[in-house]
């Protein structure tokens, strides 16, 4: 298998972390979907990453679909087995994916020419991030993992999301969200996270 994408994309990184957590043999191929004529469009009609090549001419796309496929390859998905835990995990994943979406929307706005940037748009996305982190703090039980007593997709998705906040919209969210800060310190120290850090990323406190 091959995973195509950008090393800075949080959508791609979710798949990369999962591949390492499960020790799945999969080659990572760096490809940028943005330039005209990018080969990504031949693999994904939507022209986005990640794209997972599962066989000759066979491709999966959209990060949720890609990670779902990878998670079920070995028949031992990371999802909690009880119904309550399963839906709690889905809630955390929705929260994390929403944070990623908001940060990316903010980043894209900052890359427009200054005279065309929409300040109200950036402030709205920042508010979404702040509300989501606060919601996570309220929902957190303060344990090592977000759901149950083992690492799940909830930890993976929110862990990637908060590190993307640190990467593209750095601010001190930890001071006022102590439970999430403690949890994230443990999750982000996992080998799967350390080995997939975006180029140029410096963990808070290491600057």
Low-confidence stretches: none
H/E element sequence = EHEHEEHHHHHH
Proportion of beta-strand residues: 5-15%
Based on the coordinates given, report the CATH architecture of the largest domain. Up-down Bundle
The geometry reads as globular
The separation of the N and C termini measures: 36 Å
Number of helices: 8
Sheet/helix structural class: alpha+beta
Largest sheet: 4 strands, mixed
The amount of helix comes to: 40-55%
The tally of strands reads: 4
Instruction: Trace the largest sheet across and list its strands.
Output: 2-1-3-4
**Nearest-integer average pLDDT:** 96
How would you describe this protein?
The protein has 207 residues and is of the alpha+beta class. The protein folds into 2 domains: 2-72, Glutaredoxin; 83-190, Glutathione S-transferase Yfyf (Class Pi), Chain A, domain 2 (Up-down Bundle). It has helices at residues 10-21, 40-43, 63-72, 83-110, 119-139, 153-168, 178-187, 191-194; strands at 2-5, 27-30, 51-55, 58-61. The longest helix has 28 residues, at 83-110. The chain is globular. It starts with a strand and ends in a 13-residue tail after the last helix.
Key structural traits:
alpha+beta, 2 domains, four-stranded mixed beta sheet, 207 residues, 4 strands, Glutathione S-transferase Yfyf (Class Pi), Chain A, domain 2, 8 helices
Layout of SSEs?
Layout: E1 2-5, H1 10-21, E2 27-30, H2 40-43, E3 51-55, E4 58-61, H3 63-72, H4 83-110, H5 119-139, H6 153-168, H7 178-187, H8 191-194
Parallel strand pairs: 1-2
Antiparallel strand pairs: 1-3, 3-4
Helix pairs in contact: 1-3, 1-6, 4-5, 4-6
